[in-house]
Design brief:
Layout lengths: L17 E5 L2 E12 L10 E6 L12 E6 L1 E3 L5 E4 L2 E6 L10 E6 L5 E6 L5 H37 L17 H33 L3 H36 L2 H4 L5 H8 L9 H14 L4 H17 L4 H27 L6 H28 L9 H18 L1 H11 L14
Antiparallel strand pairs: 1-2, 2-8, 2-9, 3-4, 4-9, 5-6, 7-8
Helix pairs in contact: 1-2, 1-3, 1-5, 2-3, 2-9, 2-10, 3-5, 3-6, 3-7, 3-9, 6-9, 7-8, 7-9, 8-9, 8-10, 8-11, 9-10, 9-11
The structure holds flavin-adenine dinucleotide (FAD).
Length: 430
């Protein structure tokens, strides 16, 4: 996907690349930056999807069209033809994801790259969003996947590394230290919450396409739209903490490259940036998904969560105690959403100033919901073989409610503080 240009990152309305008609196709010129796998020789050809403006394009976001531009043209018989006028100008040196070439791409230095219009003229952004919404889920899953890898490595190290006399016992492995256990619980419960949320969002995407009933399809469409920025924003932000904990569990060895723990930390860092930064996801959540429908989709989610909270009241003692914390967090999420809707016009800065904390708070509550459903499902039983597994699901929910869910209260309270202190200093005071 070739969207980004030096002056057009988060703000795609500023895209300047041009496409002029040339017979049945177009000639593209301009520069794209930071293009993932912009060039490589693993495949015979590369098909770029490129945002550019037609000569008669209106200004801004409504004047952007989508073009298909192959690296090599294709002959009438399907064989590979001449090299198209699109070339990588350079490959970036990056903090992480060193296996992924990130290229500056030059279009049209030698007369114009041949490209074919996809969809209607000036309709490129809507088409791009079809891909971007799925790519956002994919990047959320990338945050989850790197976290899982960091966890597996940390777990393996903690089971082997001998250091100190854990909890007053003889010299033993570091997994016996309560603080190492805390870190592993934080990683594991966070990862399970993230994974469950990704599955829920993906299931909604499937139901939105395939449910028999039109009402259910629309409901799932709303749910998928609501969860997409949360999956992208919350899972990737959480992956920063989880991969950092992975380094911490290793102690000094975590900081040494040969262990591999540091690579996960560096690789995770991009996930909060590409496919729209966390700030952009949060703006999407507040503006398009909350304010536009006056909280309807969030209200449906809250109602589902409240049903789960009611079911938790009848569960075993520890799970029911977690359920009470969860119920209070759901209530606070609902109230905070109501507060944002009521106060959205208090100042121009308000939605933007509170958006990320709202997203992270909502994500943290969603995580508890996912784990609570897993804890409830353990009631169905699974035979003696599954006892350990089921017990772990309950314990992970209880840990999450005690150690991670209180963060939602802090984050959502911050939202109600509004924009004033965020905007208090003038730019020159920084
Ligand atoms: C390794 C890598 C791979 C990439 N791959 C691709 C690719 O394949 N194709 C592609 O097209 N692009 C790609 N990108 C570009 C990526 O999508 C952009 O970097 C990203 O969208 C942010 O744009 P920017 O870098 O211009 O930052 P800016 O938009 O300048 O943002 C800088 C800061 O300002 C904040 N900000 C800006 N606008 C707003 C706003 N409206 N509200 C709140 N905060 C805001 C951002 O959150 C961020 O913190 C890649 C980038 C990298 C680093």
């Amino acid at each position: 996907m070739n969207l980004t240009e030096p002056q057009a990152g988060s703000d795609l309305a500023a895209v300047k690349s041009r496409a002029v008609p040339d017979g049945d196709h177009y000639r593209l010129s301009g520069q794209k930056i930071f293009i993932t796998w912009g060039d490589q020789d693993f495949t015979d050809n590369i098909v770029h999807l490129v945002l550019a403006r037609l000569p008669d394009a209106p200004p801004g976001i409504k004047g952007i069209s989508l073009f298909l531009v192959p690296k090599f043209l294709v002959n009438a018989d399907g064989s590979r033809g001449a090299r198209n006028d699109v070339f990588p100008a350079s490959i970036e040196h990056k903090l992480g994801i060193h296996g992924s070439p990130t290229c500056v791409m030059n279009y049209g230095d030698n007369g114009g790259a041949a490209g074919w219009l996809v969809g209607e003229p000036h309709g490129g952004i809507a088409l791009m969003f079809t891909m971007m919404n799925h790519a956002r889920i994919a990047v959320g899953i990338q945050g989850l996947s790197i976290s899982e890898r960091a966890f597996q490595q940390a777990r393996g190290y903690a089971l082997e590394r001998v250091q100190g006399q854990p909890a007053g016992n003889a010299r033993g492995t570091i997994i016996q230290h309560p603080d190492v256990r805390r870190m592993l619980m934080q990683m594991k419960s966070g990862i399970e919450a993230m994974r469950g949320l990704c599955y829920l969002a993906a299931a909604s995407a499937d139901h939105a396409h395939h449910a028999q009933d039109a009402v259910a399809r629309q409901r799932h469409e709303r749910r998928f739209a609501l969860l997409t920025p949360i999956v992208k924003g919350w899972c990737t932000e959480f992956s920063q903490e989880i991969t950092s904990l992975g380094v911490q569990v290793h102690g000094g060895m975590g900081y040494i490259e040969e262990t591999g723990a540091a690579q996960h930390f560096r690789d995770a860092r991009i996930t909060t940036i590409y496919e729209g930064t966390t700030g952009i996801q949060a703006n999407d959540l507040i503006s398009r998904k909350l304010l536009r429908d006056k909280g309807a989709a969030l209200g449906e989610l809250v109602a589902d969560m409240q049903r789960t909270a009611a079911a938790l009241a009848g569960a075993g003692t520890a799970v029911a105690a977690g359920g009470r914390v969860f119920r209070a967090a759901v209530e606070l999420l609902e109230q905070t959403a109501g507060w944002v809707i009521a106060h959205q016009r208090d100042s121009d800065a308000l939605p933007g100033a509170v958006a990320v904390n709202f997203l992270l708070g909502a994500g943290t509550v969603c995580g508890a919901w996912v784990l609570s459903r897993a804890a409830l499902a353990t009631d169905a039983g699974g035979g003696a073989d599954a006892a350990d597994y089921l017990d772990a699901r309950r314990e992970l929910f209880c840990f999450y409610c005690e150690h991670l869910l209180p963060r939602a209260t802090a984050l959502l309270q911050t939202v109600r503080a509004g924009a004033d202190s965020v905007m208090a200093l003038r730019p020159e005071q920084f």
